[in-house]
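Support request, priority: normal
Reporter: lab tech (M.K.)
Component: structure prediction queue

Hi team, I submitted a job for ABC1 atypical kinase-like domain-containing protein from viral metagenome yesterday, and the status page still shows it as pending. I've pasted the exact input below so you can check whether something in the sequence is tripping the parser. The sequence length should be 518 residues. Please let me know if I need to resubmit or if it's stuck on your end.
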Amino acid sequence: MNALFKVYNKLCVLFCKIKYIIYFNIFLNVLLINYLYYKVWNVLNNNLALALNYTIKLNGCVIIKLIQWLNTNLELLLINSHNYDFLSKLFSRYYEDCPIHQLKYTKDLFLKEFGVEFDDYFELDTSFSIKSGSVAQVYKGLIKANANTNTDANVNPNAATVAIKVVHPEIEYQLICPVYFVKLYTYLVTNFKCLYKYDIILDLNAFFSNLKKQINMENEYKNNEYFYNTYCNNNIILIPKPLMKSKNFLVMEFVEGEQFEKLDVSDYKKQIIISFMSIFMKNTFIYGKYVHCDLHQANWKIYKEINKNNDETNFNDETDFNYKIIIYDFGYVVENTINDTLKNICYCLDTNNIQGLGNLLFDNIKNINNDTSNISFKEDFIARYKKHNVMAYPYSDSLIATAINFCYINGYKLNNDLLDFFVSVILLNKHFNKYLFLNYDETSYDDDVYCKYVYDTNMFYMSICEKYDVFSGIKEFIYATYINNPYFSKRIKYTNTYFNSLKNTSVTSSLNHNAIDI
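Reply from support: The job had stalled in the queue. We restarted it manually and it finished. Here are the results:
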């Protein structure tokens, strides 16, 4: 009987492998047909695009994740190229619409990995819509008070509301063909001159290497635990506590939040929240052991709690609440091995130091000889990079986008670590530009005005860190790097008017930084 069972399992594995080999080949052929049609007619065909959409779903989570990754990166490619234009138009049509796998699969897998019946441990919230992403789906549930606690879980046996994240089925088989295809493709386009023009610049091998980590919930638990321990005493950043783990399961504290753009609060309140998001990113760049590289809008939300100092019984005004930033999904987290480089990049971005950025960029490109002895090539590189740039917002992610774009145009490949960090900031670009720079005029650049704006902004950052007793390291960094820096202090006569002229916000006309409330 055991022998038959083993044979059956092997046949199932073989079937899955063959199935996804066929599906992947169908996907490649339909993609090629879409490309040829676009090349001839210079327009996408709706029926062909729908057929491609169907083949993407056939291939499951891995191709969906690849499409999402390409979408993020293609937004940065401001390139006048037929191939990139085709990919951008085609994949911009594809929105995350990931299938939900059966609950029976989840329950059977839980029993296999924890040795406990799912229904003996959890009571699912049936009113909660299952959230399905490209890698996993999430249930909301309650840990039963009489649950068997022999699962080595970091959880109180008393009832607790949790989020149960489980990896989609068959993902290891879905990886096989794309990984081998990318290895073959990379070898061909980097070793044969006649195929150089087909190198898409993006590092697909790095993508699949990161994806293999993302589908391991034990790895995500480790990342989640690091961020929880780092920010558990922070009054602004809220990290759900990880509770249980296995290869395919991650159970964590359930923390509900609202999407930032849907918050019914003033722009001034949103500016403070986004200021803290900016500070959080700098903190992870400069002092963090790990950096979260996937902060799209679904992976961070706003937690609203009743202000404990308020004696009112009816809570309607935004001042009746405290607001915290919840960070979710710690699958795409990378180790920070370049803290000093990122610290220098932050300063160069803040001061619009294009020369400094060019130097840092040159030192972090992996497909050129960036030996310091090659001075003439480096000078030419920086000169071309400076010509590619324009004056921009302080702290502007458009400078990052320009840096990435410059590399793509010239065929330079950034080190994976730096590219991951750049993309992580770009994901927040629209919020930074919308809420942090309302009263900055970028149309006419003036060096002294620019310096004062940077100085005022950092004074504001220091004041909110001081008020909420958070990010002490960043506060010291800001003081040493900006406030006590002669580069700024000798250029300006300080009177802080930051946030004092915001549109439709009367409260800012007489802003007292000691009375700032989030």
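The CA atoms of residues 438 and 502 lie 7 Å apart. The first strand starts at residue 122 and ends at 124. Let us know if anything else looks off. Ticket resolved.
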